[in-house]
Design brief:
Layout lengths: L1 E2 L2 E2 L16 E4 L1 E5 L4 E6 L3 E3 L1
Antiparallel strand pairs: 1-2, 1-3, 3-6, 4-5
Amino acid sequence: LLCNGRYQETSQGKIHFFTNLQPGVYRIEAYLKDKFRYRPWIYTNPIWIN
């Protein structure tokens, strides 16, 4: 989870809940594990929290 371009929280697994979100512009980045490394998989559009 990125907020205003900085990593806010990280987690691993299938289901994620993020609490205590402050106002800002958020994005999610998801990586998929390959044989030898993690590859970029999902990048969300900006999500504005007021």
